[in-house]
Amino acid sequence: MEEKKLMSLNFKSRNNWFLENLIYNRAFSLTLLIIFISIIMSVFYGQSFLSGRNFAALLLSLASTGFLSIGMMLLLISGSFDLSVGANLALGGIMTVYLMSKFTAMPIPLAMIIGVALSTFFGFLNGIVVAKIKVNALIATFAMGGIIRAIATYFSGAGIVALPPEYLAFGQTVFLGVQMPVYYMIALVIIFSFLTSRIRYFRQLYFIGGNEKAAELSGINVTKVRMISFVIMGALAGFAGVVQTARLNMALGTLATGIELPVITAVILGGGSIAGGRGTIAGAFTGALFIAIIQNAMVIGGINVYFQGVVIGAILIAAVGTDLAILRKLGSR
Amino acid sequence: METNKIKISEERKNISVRNWLIDQIINNRLFILSLLTVFIFVLMLIFRRDSFFTYQNWGAILLNLSTSGMLAIGMMFLLVGGVFDLSIGANLALGGAVAAYFLKNFTNMPIFLSAIIGISISAIVGLINGLVINKLKVNALIATLGMMSICRALAIIITGSGIAGLPEGFLAFGRNTYFRLQLPVYYLIAATLIGYFLLRKTRFFRQLYFIGSNEKAALLSGINVGRTMIVMFVIMGALAGFSGLMIASRLNAAVGTVVESINLQVIAAIVLGGGSLSGGRGSILGAFFGALFMSLINNIMVLSSFSIYLQTGIIGFILISALSLDVTLSRKYGVQN
Fold first, then answer.
1. B314 contact residues in A (CB cutoff 8 A)
2. Of A119, A139, A104, A143, whose CA–CA distance to A255 is shortest?
3. What is the extent of the structural domain holding A197?
C-alpha cells in the first residue's frame, strides 16, 4: 500500500498501470523481457530457435529448475535457503529408478512414491537441522547436499539405463503437441499461486520472512512452518527427479549437479529477496523461464559451456545487487 | 529465560564431569580437538598400523594439510569477522591456471613474475568479493557462490584440457625438500605463525573480533569495517592463489577442476577449530588444528578407499554434527569469552 502511495506521488497519475506493474510486479517485467528476447532470437536465429526440438530442450531444462524454483521461493520468502536441492532431486530420481530395476515386480507408481518419499524425508532432515536446531541454513544444507549426493551416488553406481516404457511415458508423452512436464509445471504453478494467496499457512511464510521475532510473538509456530516449507521443497525436488529421469531415460549419480545456482538466480530475479518476506510463485516461474531462455540462447549462440556458468553467476550478482539498491531507495523515503 | 552459566573458578569442586566436558567443548576447543586427534591415532595404531605410520602417508597428510591449512587461515580471518567465502576452491584453481598459462606461453618471462601474476589475479577476485559484499551490500554467501561459478568457469576455460609441462624453476617452488619436509609444509608453518601473530597482537586484525560480534557497534566505535573486511577478502584471495600455485607446482600441471571438494573440508576445519558461524570467535591455532584434524580424516577415508562422494558425504555429516552440537550447547549453557 505504501509503495502504491509513493508511486502516485512519483508519476502524477494514479492510473499508470503499466509503469506501476513494470517496477513492482516482477513477473510482469520478466515476461516482457522474455517476449523481447524471444523476438530477438526468432529474428536472428529463426531456424534453430523456433524448432520443435529446441522448444523441447528448452522445456526440459525448465522442468527441473521450474519445480525447484517454486520450492525455493517458498523457502526464500520465509528467510531460509536450501543448497541441497540438486542432490535431493538426484536421490529421488535415482531411488525410483533403482527400485524399478532391482525389483521388477514392483508396480511403477509405488517406486515413484518411495522415491519422492525419500527426498521428502531428507527435506524433513534439512528442516530439523535448520528450523529446529537452528544451524545456519546455507552451511547446513550445503553439508546435507554432500551427504545426499553420497547416498545418491551409492545407489546409482555407474548409472542406470533402459527404464520401462510405462515409466518413460510419465515424462515423455506428448499431449496436444506439448510435453507432459510442462503440464505438471503449469499445474504446480497454478496450485501454489493459489495456495500462497489463500491458505493461512503460506501467508505465515511472509510474516516469518518479514520479521521473525514479531511473527513468533504473534503466535505463529515458526519452527513448524519452516519445517513444512523444507518438507515441501524435498517433495518437489523428488518429484522433479522422477520427471527428469523419466525424460532422460537414465539416472546418473551426477544428475542436477550445480543446479542450485540457476535456481537461486531464477528465484532472485523473480522477486525473492535474501532478507525474506518478498516474492511470488509467478515471479519464481517467470524467473526460471527467463534463465531457461538465456541458457537456450547461449547454447544456440554457441557460447562455451563453461562460460555459461560465468554468465549465470554474473546475472546472480547483478540481480542481487540491483535488488538491494532498489530496496534501499524505496526504504529511504 | 536465564542461561545456565558455568562458573568454573567458583565451583571447581562441584563441577560434574558432564558440565566440565560441555564447558571444554564450548570454550576450550583446542583441547577437545587434541583429545580427538589422539583418539584417531590410537584407532590407527590398532587398525592400520602398516599403512598409516609411513613416511609416504605422512607426506600425503602434510601436503593436504598445507593446502587446507592455508585456506583455513584465510577463512578464519573472514569467519571471525562474521562472513564467509565459498569461492576459495575456484579461486585457487584460477590462480594456478593463470600462472600456468603465463609460464607455458610466455617462456621468456621470469618465473617469479608469472607466479606473481597468478597470485594477483586471485587477490583481485578477493578484492571483487570484498567490494561486492561491503560496498554493494550483497549477502556474502550469495556473492561468493556466484563468484565461485565465475572463477571455476574461467579456470576451466583457461586450462582447457589441462596445462602440463611447467618450467623446472617453478616445480622447485613446491617440490623442494629441506630436512625431509617438503616446502609447502614450511609455507604453512610460516603462514600459521604470521597469522597467529597478526590476529593476536595487531590492532587491525583484532578489530575482526569486534566486527564479527556486533558490526553496528564496531562501526559506531570508529572501526573502518568496510576497509578491514575488504583487506581480509584480498588476503583470502592471495592465500587461495598461493595455494593454487603450490598445487600446480606439485602436480606439474594446472587443471581447471582441481580441489572441487575442498570448500566443505575447510569450513569443517574452522568450525571444529572454534570458529562460530555468527562471527566474533575463533583463533588461528584453532584453524590449524581443525585443518589438521580434517586432513587426518581425509587421509583415513582415502586409505579406506572411500569414493569421493562418500568422502564429501562424511565431511558433510561431521560438519552438521559439529554445528548442531555447538549451536545446541551454546544456546543451553551460555558462552563465556
1. 150
2. A119
3. 56-327
Phi first, then psi, for residue A80 (nearest 5°) are -115, -165
How far away is chain A from the Cα of B183, in angstroms, using its nearest Cα?
32
For residue A83, give the chain B residue with the closest CA: B145
A36 part of a folded domain: no
CA–CA separation, B194 vs B186, rounded Å? 12
Residue B119: pLDDT over 90:
yes
Distance from CA of A147 to the nearest CA of B (A): 4
The CATH architecture to which B17-333 belongs is Orthogonal Bundle (1.10)
Q: Which of A150, A316, A320 faces B309 most closely, judged by CB atoms? A: A150
Question: Does residue A48 lie within any of the structural domains?
Answer: no
Give the ipTM of the model, two decimals please: 0.79
Q: Judge whether A234 lies within some domain.
A: yes
At B260-281, the pLDDT tens digits run 778 889 999 998 888 888 888 8
**Least confident interval from A166-175, A318-327, B94-103, B295-304:** A166-175
Contact status of B327 with chain A (Cβ, < 8 Å): yes
| Closest by Cβ to A306, choosing from B136, B142, B157 | B157
**pLDDT tens readout for residues A56-67:** 778 777 888 899
Cβ partners under 8 Å of residue A310, min gap 6: B149, B150, B153, B154
| CATH number of the structural domain spanning residue A204 | 1.10.3470
- Measured from the Cβ of residue B100, the count of other Cβ atoms closer than 10 Å reads 29
Whether A208 is covered by a domain: the verdict is yes
Which element (helix H / strand E) includes B11? Answer: none
